[in-house]
Design goal:
- Belongs to the iron/ascorbate-dependent oxidoreductase family.
- Helices cover 24% and strands 17% of the residues.
- By secondary structure, the protein is α+β, with helices and mostly antiparallel strands.
- The chain has one domain: B-lactam Antibiotic, Isopenicillin N Synthase, Chain (Jelly Rolls).
- A 6-stranded antiparallel beta sheet has the order 1-2-3-10-5-8.
- 33% of the residues are buried.
- It binds 2-oxoglutaric acid (AKG) and fe (ii) ion (FE2).
Amino acid sequence: MQYMGYTKPDPNKLNDTKEGFYFAAEVNTMPQWFNIWPDEAGDSNASLLSSRAPRNFKKDLTEFQKAMVNCNTLLMKLIDRALRTKRPILDPDEGDALAKATSQHLHIADTKSVAEIDARTPLAECICDGLHSARLLCYKNVPQSKGTCVTTAHTDWGFLTFLYSDQPGLQVMGPSCPSVSANQQISLEPTPTKSSWIKPDTEKARLIVMVGDMLERYTNGTYKACKHRIISHGSLRHSLVFFSEPAPSLRVQPHARFGSPPTSLVSPTYGESIMAKVNAKRERKLLGGSFSQCSTAVRT
Ligand SMILES: O=C(O)CCC(=O)C(=O)O
Ligand SMILES: [Fe+2]
C-alpha cells in the first residue's frame, strides 16, 4: 500500500479540506516508503501539488528534510541527557545555540555547545537511518468549515513532531487529559471538555515540538505523547510537519532505565505499527466513519 506522495481532500466531505504531500528519508527499502515526487513545472509560483510543483521542489524539500534530521538528532541527545541527569533539556546558552542553529538553516554540527554532547546516546541511536517523514499540508479556504475539526484528535507516531504553520488552528490537550499509550488506539472517554484544549500561540512560537508515541513508549510513560487536533478557521492554512521516526524495521521498547515495560508482549516494528494504523483508518473511512468527529486517537 502506498503511503508517500500526494494525498487529496475527500471531495465527498465538506470538512475534509486537507491536501498534502508526504515524503521521507531516502534510506528505506520497502516500496510503501518510496518517495513519489511530482513533476516540476519550472514555475516558482506553481502550487498544485497533484499536477505540478514549484521549481526545485524535490531539492528544497530534501534539504529541509536533512536539516530537520540534524535538528532532531540534537534534540534527542538533549532529551537523553535530561532524562539521565534529571536536568532541564536546555541550559540557557544551549537554547541560544539551538535558536541560532535553527535560524541558520540548522547547521548544528558547527555549534560549540552541542558538540560536547555525546555522539552516541541510546535515544539518538533509535533514530539512526530513520524514516523521518514530513508533510506539506494545505487546508483549503472553506468559510463554512470554520470551527470544525479538520484534523481529529490524535498523537503522532514517532518520537518527536516539529510543526511550522502560518495560521492558528492547532490545539493541544492540556495536562489534565488521560494519557494515550503507544500500544492503544484510544477513544477519548470521558470526552474531553473544551477547556482541556490549549491553543499555542503560533504567531510567537514559530516551531512547535511535540512528544510522540515512540518517545512515550521508550520512556515507559515518563514523557507523554502530546494529543493535538486542528480546528478550522475557515481560511487557508499551510503547515509543514516533520516527524522524527525510527527505521520501519526497528522495534522500539522501553529503555531499561525506565523500568519494565507495561506488557511482556514484543512491540511490533515501527513499520508494522504504522501500516496497522493506516489500514484501520482506511477501513473506518470505508465504513463511513466521520472524520469530522474529534474523537479518534490515531494520526490523520
Ligand atoms: O496541520 C497541522 O498543522 C498538523 C497536522 C498533524 O497533526 C499531522 O499531520 O499529524
Ligand atoms: Fe499530528
